[in-house]
Write a structure and sequence with these properties.
The structure is a single chain. This protein is α+β, with helices and mostly antiparallel strands and 240 residues long. It folds into 2 domains: 79 residues, Class II aldolase/adducin N-terminal domain (L-fuculose-1-phosphate Aldolase, 3-Layer(aba) Sandwich), CATH 3.40.225.10; 117 residues, L-fuculose-1-phosphate Aldolase (3-Layer(aba) Sandwich), CATH 3.40.225.10. It contains 8 helices and 8 strands, in the order αββββαβααβαββααα. An 8-stranded mixed beta sheet has the order 4-3-2-1-5-8-7-6, with helices on both faces. The longest helix has 24 residues.
Length: 240
């Protein structure tokens, strides 16, 4: 990555942060090819990864800059999901970074079936509740559809992430790095670890199944979880 003189020192730091975050996501296989995008809020506009760019090979100088009127200022052509990112920033004043990936595990979750549209996963642990809270499902529309941006905008002030059906998570936080960390520690990692543990131990899974069947009789969420395990296993082609 070459150093850029396209903006202020702070802007250049954010450009580098986007590139470092993109490379980390790519190396951990959260995204492949040109899937996914990252943006950041500046004092005079937004930075967003260019359309069709590989997150693992970003150039700071090619990160697109757009002013608050939506005009392209510099860098490559902005990602077609710019409208979605803008609407999040406009409705969440504390947000300074947005990360969207096509995480295999989380896309598979939307295919297998989420817990409910208002919360894609049940409150599995206190840590999950504290760090993530509610993560609503946004039903599928083509990438860049303005209707998705409006749906997410209505939720932006009350949640910190949504899961786009068949497209993956969108996470926003006080910086790009914090958004990436939340995606890793609180969403994808938690889902992956849970199901590795379940499917990797037949004895445990059998015990879990019996326990959850009892829970379902008592009015718990066991029925959903048992059915979900079957659907998730069928939908996931190459594990977690």
């Amino acid at each position: 990555m070459r150093l850029s003189t396209v903006g202020s020192v702070d802007e250049n730091r954010v450009r580098e942060e986007i590139c470092v975050t993109g490379k980390s996501l790519y190396e951990r296989r959260y995204t492949v090819g040109s899937a996914g995008n990252i943006s950041a809020r500046l004092d005079d506009g937004w930075l967003i990864t260019p359309t069709d760019a590989c997150l693992g090979r970003l150039d700071p100088a090619e990160i697109a800059k757009v002013d608050f009127e939506g005009r392209h200022v510099s860098g490559g052509r902005p990602s077609k999901t710019l409208a979605l990112h803008r609407r999040i920033y406009e409705n969440s004043s504390e947000t300074r970074g947005v990360v969207h990936t096509h995480s295999t595990s989380l896309v598979t979750l939307t295919i297998a079936g989420v817990w409910k549209d208002e919360d894609v996963l049940p409150p599995l642990t206190p840590y999950y509740v504290m760090k993530v809270g509610h993560v609503p499902l946004i039903r599928y529309r083509r990438p860049g559809d303005p209707a998705v941006a409006e749906q997410v905008a209505a939720l932006a002030a009350s949640v910190r992430a949504v899961l786009l059906e068949r497209l993956g998570p969108v996470v926003w936080e006080k910086s790009v790095s914090h958004a990436s960390l939340m995606l890793w520690k609180s969403l994808r990692r938690r889902l992956s670890c849970i199901f590795r543990f379940c499917f990797g131990r037949k004895g445990f899974l059998s015990m879990l199944s019996r326990s959850l069947r009892l829970c379902s009789v008592l009015g718990g969420e066991g029925c959903w979880f048992l059915a979900f395990l079957d659907r998730f296993a069928a939908a996931s082609k190459d594990g977690f």
